[in-house]
Amino acid sequence: MFIHHLEKNNSILNKFIAEIRDVNIQQDSLRFRKNISRIGEILGYELSKHLNYSAQNITTSLGVKNVEILTNKIVLCSILRAGLPLHQGLLNYFDDAESAFISAYRHHPNKNADFEIVVEYFAAPDFKNKTLLLADPMLASGQSLVAVYKAIKEQRNIEELHIVSVIGATEGIDFIKKHLPENTHLWIAAI
Nearest Cα to 172, choosing from 135, 152, 146? Predict the structure, then answer.
């Protein structure tokens, strides 16, 4: 797995991370959602540098200009919990992306700390010849991401996978490293 940890390099991202973590600021729901969306935009921008491009001629008012244009066909899939602001931030940059949604939640059958991940809903376009961006704002144990990946794999062939997350725990990252393909990219703002 390729891990792209953005917080290690100083940028405006660090301000948005600080604000979503600050107990005095995180109670402002509107600001919290806006910052998650902004983080999604930054993660999307950095991710875009690792995708495929090809030269295309465009006609400008001054003549023809050769420009490198993104060629990946993107499917942006969010895990339905708190992922919608992150989804919107990514969609602000990948505005040609198709959207997919999948639900996942922790089910505690014995009413104790033990749980299983339940995936009940999945709506997505065809993934053939497309790049999947799987967005989940919080990577805690990694079990939700792995369960979602397995559920998607049962219905679709995943050719290229990028996980996009705002905050993650080392334990969760280690878990998904063991269960997801080696060529998976993890784009994460803070660990």
Answer: 146
Tens of pLDDT, residues 78-103 = 988 668 899 999 999 999 999 999 88
**Partner residues linked to 58 by β-bridges:** 65
The three-state secondary structure class of 181 is coil
| Beta-carbon contacts of residue 149 (< 8 Å; ≥ 6 apart) | 134, 158, 161, 179, 180
Considering the entire predicted model, what is its pTM? 0.90
Of residues 140, 130, 129, the one with CA closest to residue 166: 140
Which residues, listed in sequence order, are joined to residue 4 by a DSSP beta bridge?
187
Residue 99 burial (CB count, 10 A): 15
Check residue 117 and give its pLDDT.
81
DSSP for 78-141, please give it.
Answer: EEETT-HHHHHHHHHH-TTPEEEEEE-EEE-TTSSS--EEE---EE----TT-EEEEE-SEESS
Average pLDDT of the chain, as a whole number: 92
Contact 100/61 with Cβ under 8 angstroms? Answer: no
